[in-house]
Predict the 3D structure of the following.
Amino acid sequence: MNGYTIRKIKDRIMVSLAYLALVIALIPLVSILMETVLRGAPAINLSFLTERIPPLGQAGGGIGPAIQGTLIVVGIASMIGVPIGVFSGIYLAEFRETKLASVARFLADVSTNMPSIVIGIFGWALIVTAIGWSVIAGAIALAIMVIPIITRTTEEAVKLVPVTMREAALALGVPRWKTTITIVLSSAKKGIATGILLSIARISGETAPLLLTILGSRFWFGGFTEPTAALPLTIFNFSQSPYSAIDWPRAWGASMVLILMILGINVVVRYFTREKYG
Amino acid sequence: MSYKIEIEDLNAWFGNNHVLKDINMKIRENAVTAIIGPSGCGKTTLIRCLNRMHELVPGARISGRVLLDGRDIYSDGVDPVTVRRRIGMVFQKPNPFPMMSVHDNVAAGLKLNGMKDKQRLDKTVEKSLKLAILWDEVQKELDKSGASLSGGQQQRLCIARALAVEPEVILMDEPCSALDPTATAKIEKLIRTLGESYTVVIVTHNMQQAARVADFTAFLYLGELVEYGDTSTIFENPRNKLTENYITGKFG
Amino acid sequence: MSRLIDTGLEQLSRLLFKMGDLAEKTVSLSLDSYMEGLEVQDKVRVWSETLVALSEQVEEKAIEIIARYQPVASDLRIIESYMKIAYDLSRYGRYAWDITFIYKRLNVNSADCMFPSLPIKELKEKVQDIVHTSIEAVRKSEIDLAKKIGEIENEVDAVYYECLDKLVEQDRITTKCLITNLLFIRHLERIADHASYIGESITYLVTGERISLRGRMSNES
């Protein structure tokens, strides 16, 4: 057994271990997907997706309002969060060295890791106590979650724009603000868009903030200051039902819809940011 | 014989780092002036002080005056943006805007400053590309991405882009160091031609290039201007021993 | 820090110094044997031809250095000066040969043609001095030696004109002797000229200034 052979064996062992670890890591993910699809698919049909939510234990109906609720709440949260996040991100990237920037960056990083239930309580304490369980409260809570994420991803995307490109524009006598808005942004737009879409995908699945702000309901959207349904909450409700035979399949079905939404966003992002040659 | 730029007692710092020390220089109009010196001697900083790009780095500052046609570009009330329109710059690594076509790259300076007249833009693009000796090579491919050209072509594209805003001075920071010898030769010839109608200041670490291309040469060492004169004198019989040692390769 | 060009420059210098020594030897032999009427024509001819060959080598080496190393400043001045000096040294050889040729061709014993008032010996010694000084100047690249060449050159000119005057005044001299002496002093004067060219080249090499060391023509001659 010379050194070379020993090394070859060591090599193979390491590679096999790494491979094994990867497989183990993938097992839960793959099983989740498989279980969800296997158990959820049978429940899904057009009426499931479009009819109102039935009371627990009752047959028929669907998760229409939940889908609608998620879309509305996430939509409003995005409308609030995206502009604030993007412009904050641009500020952080362009004025990297200021005191304000360092502080903001630190706070953003902390916020991205804040437990979502805390954000929920905050939303409840601030908004629900004022105007009651409402779509607005939920949207604001989700916006609070999404802003720091978009800020940081935007900042990173803008930072990636090479200094040389900015300098080229500045040397042409283009004012700084214009350089940022035209050259830098158009160069970073892919990265920014990716960040936005992925953060939206992330908040679509958040449950805790919604629990304490929109409360959930079985009915279609009834106004911005009214509670509404949302997929994560509906899934939770169905899963807590004593009528498991009827409601569990619905829970699985709703889960599959939610996962498909999120997967869908990811696939779209991937497609639009693929490397184009030529 | 007039001086386009007069540099008076120019000092420059990066934070506490004193990079340029008491530079006094007069740069002739419509001539090519080269700045040579070992790495770190301050030559890039010097030209970036001429178009007010130095101050864009956080912590950078200057003292002294830089007169363009007799007026200090650093005096209060002078907008750096207007300075940069009169003094253009070409960088070491060609940096065309990759998300724009060849045509749009050249027109970028004009478009971003508000020019919308398509005919005027097209004419200026053609004129600039001809000045930069690139027109013949790209006239059928003006819509291709700026980044799809070869290195030498990209650099000439950047020169055309700089020329399109009709500057009076063109600064070049080691414009050929990323290019192969053939591309370099084309650009050196272009520089000599440009020197007849523009004031060109070129930083180069290649002394032979300075000898070929420049009418006047300045030797910078550790932030100080050691010697400055016409190129033939500097390369045949420099007055300063330090200059002599640098250009004969005894150090640096 | 030693540079790539230094090897080339060293080779060039060695060639040139070799030429210098040979040139001095050649001139000495030629002048001494002329004064003493010795037959050294073949030896001097061979040395003179060697000097020509060496000067061609110097030129080739210099051109090679220019093509390969793009010399500037002092390096460039060395190349230019050495090329010129090599030519001047080859001229030393050529005139030395011409002088031995006088005897051979004209079949005259130069000793017979000398007369006391003709300061030909003085001229010969001064020329030997200036040649020696020029070789020293090349070896040491010293401008003081170049200045000395200028001084000796003035003296050489003075004695040369004196010789001319004396030859003109002399009635009782054969045509053969007249021609012999004239050719001899003429060649000596040319050797001295080339010595001053060498001095000028050395001055240019060191200071970058182009000067003239040749004696001014005085109005009285």
